[in-house]
Design brief:
The structure is a single chain. The protein has 10 helices and 6 strands, in the order E-H-H-E-H-H-H-H-E-H-E-H-E-E-H-H. The protein is α/β, with parallel strands linked by helices. It has 2 domains: 243 residues, Rossmann fold (3-Layer(aba) Sandwich), CATH 3.40.50; 50 residues, no CATH class. The chain has a 6-stranded parallel beta sheet, sandwiched between helices. Helix 2 packs parallel to helix 10 and helix 3 runs antiparallel to helix 4. It is globular.
């Protein structure tokens, strides 16, 4: 039984700087995820757990890119000489009285002291802002990039094509082994898979070999996106009642799992009909809980139980 992992936003294998930034927020590396899937999930679904193909669909290189090298990010100096000139000009302005409105009646030593304080405050603000700007703009940028480039079934975008290609490979392996296909997604990966099973797969017969027998959407925003009408098949004017469950020929079981302390995870119960929706306490912090599921062996054990139960009901 192949197991496929689709990652979320702000993942860049080729960007060591971003990798360091995401580690500060608790990002779990793929080898750790793969090892947990091998140890806990594969034995629950195959008599040959060592032979279960476990693959990661990587799409980070197709995500957001800064056209001007991050020039819009305030915590970055435009260039070193310009930054030095800016500091010197600020000091000169204070000393000459040009900043009198902000710093009234400051002259001589007082003005120089005030200038140093301004520089220190600016440096402190920048040091606080920099870690967030290393991560948050890429996070938001990946979401916006996906939405603006996902295309449609008639003309799928690059991220969709990448994930479809990975699932095609996994579906072929599943058929070859006579085993089902399990998909684990994290964060934005959930929205990608939801778009696939509700819009792309039903309209793309060339991918009819893909059926996800069990899907776990960890820390996803699927419920939020559906409430906001952001999916290709969202129908905010459909009236009362949840959206229909994705077509069964493309999706079997589905567990949407979230954490009270993870501010980026959302419920789907009551928004999409029939979803298994529940909380999982990841035992991290407000800063790291968005990733902590993927480092917690209990999460994988819970996933294994759900996969096993879902597959036993379908046989």
């Amino acid at each position: 039984m192949p197991i496929v992992f689709v990652h979320g936003v702000a993942v860049r294998d080729e960007d060591p700087g971003l990798a360091r930034a995401t580690r500060a927020f608790g990002e779990v590396p793929w080898p750790t995820i793969e090892a947990h899937l091998r140890e806990h999930v594969a034995p629950a679904v195959s008599d040959d757990p060592g032979g279960v193909p476990i693959m990661r669909v990587y799409w980070g290189d197709l995500g957001a890119h800064f056209a001007f090298g991050g020039r819009s990010l305030v915590s970055r100096p435009l260039d070193v000489p310009a930054a030095a000139e800016e500091v010197a000009a600020a000091a000169a302005d204070v000393a000459s009285g040009a900043a009198a409105a902000a710093l009234p009646d400051l002259t001589g030593a007082d003005a120089a002291t005030a200038s140093r304080r301004v520089r220190r405050l600016r440096g402190a603000a920048t040091s606080l802002r920099r870690p967030l700007e290393d991560f948050v703009p890429v996070f938001l940028g990946d979401v916006m990039t996906y939405i603006s480039t996902r295309g449609s079934a008639e003309s799928p975008g690059p991220i969709i094509e990448r994930v479809l290609a990975g699932l095609d490979t996994a579906a072929f392996a599943a058929e070859s082994r006579g085993e089902p296909l399990v998909v684990l997604t994290h964060s934005m990966g959930g929205q990608i898979v939801y778009d696939l099973v509700t819009h792309f797969l039903p309209r793309m017969p060339e991918h009819r070999g893909i059926r996800i027998d069990y899907w776990c959407a960890a820390a996803s925003q699927v419920g939020l996106f559906e409430e906001l009408g952001l999916f290709l098949e969202s129908a905010p004017d459909r009236g009362p009642g949840p959206a229909a469950y994705p077509p069964r020929e493309h999706l079997g079981g589905w567990w949407n799992v979230w954490d009270h302390a993870d501010l980026l995870s959302f419920r789907a119960e009551g928004i999409v009909d029939g979803v298994d929706d529940s909380a999982f306490f990841a035992a991290g912090s407000l800063a790291t809980d968005h990733y902590r599921y993927l480092a917690n062996a209990d999460f994988y054990r819970a996933l294994a139980r759900r996969v096993e139960n879902s597959l036993s009901r379908s046989t």
